[in-house]
Design brief:
The chain has 200 residues and is of the alpha+beta class. The chain is built from four helices and twelve strands; from the N terminus they run E-H-E-E-H-E-E-E-H-E-E-E-E-E-E-H. The strands form four sheets. A four-stranded antiparallel sheet has the order 2-6-5-4. A three-stranded antiparallel sheet has the order 1-7-10, covered by helices on one side. A three-stranded mixed sheet has the order 3-9-8, with no helix packed on it. A hairpin with a 2-residue loop joins strand 5 and strand 6.
Length: 200
């Protein structure tokens, strides 16, 4: 079985229900306008996703544990948009994952927007109310199991990218952490759309 590039899309801070995840130093950075943090779900195990794939919890937890070493070394960069590549190109880096944690089978995360050209573009997009999503990038093989596929044991997590692809419902990063609380960008229409669709 050959490995292929696997990409999944998730929303950040669904329904605005985010945890208090900023450290005192991060709060000062935010207050000084030095940076921007985005928080929410980055992945989920044992649940059929919008791409028809399911990630076994033991495989995903193993890869996240490995990736946490990259996070702790402050090397967990991601790109703006989703390249068809298994390598993170630093010239296109827009953000850095600063923390990941589990909430049941949901993998939650916090990313810091960088001051790179791509990061400045990301900040401008968020500030202007553009819907921004987060997506994992990894390599692995899959096996068909009935009406869905299961990711196999050779899966390798590469990074988390910021994207605008709407392939998964509500997989948008329209939430930002500000002053120790969550706020929506001005003129955001996502809450209006949610109300119309009756989503919880």
């Amino acid at each position: 079985m050959s490995k292929k590039l696997l990409r999944e899309f998730y929303e950040l801070c669904p329904d605005g229900a985010c945890l208090d995840v900023l450290t005192e130093a991060e709060k000062r950075e935010m207050a000084d306008g030095k940076t921007l943090y985005l928080v929410g779900k980055c992945h989920e195990a044992e649940r059929l996703n919008g791409n028809g794939r399911k990630y076994p919890v033991d495989i995903l937890r193993r890869e996240v544990q490995k990736y946490m070493n990259v996070v702790k070394d402050r090397r967990a960069c991601g790109e703006l948009d989703h390249p068809d590549d298994s390598v993170v190109n630093l010239k296109n880096a827009s953000h850095m994952v600063t923390d990941l944690w589990w909430d049941g089978n949901a993998l939650m995360g916090k990313i810091k927007v960088l001051s790179t050209p791509a990061g400045q573009t990301l900040r401008a997009l968020v500030n202007d109310g553009v819907k921004i999503g987060i997506s994992s990038r990894g390599l692995g093989s899959v096996t068909q199991r009935g009406d869905h596929v299961v990711v196999e044991n050779d899966f390798q997590l590469i990074c988390f990218d910021v994207v605008s692809d709407p392939s998964t419902p509500k997989a948008f990063m329209d939430e930002i952490v500000m002053e120790n609380r969550l706020t929506r960008p001005k003129n955001s229409i996502i809450s209006i759309v949610d109300d119309i669709l009756g989503e919880k």
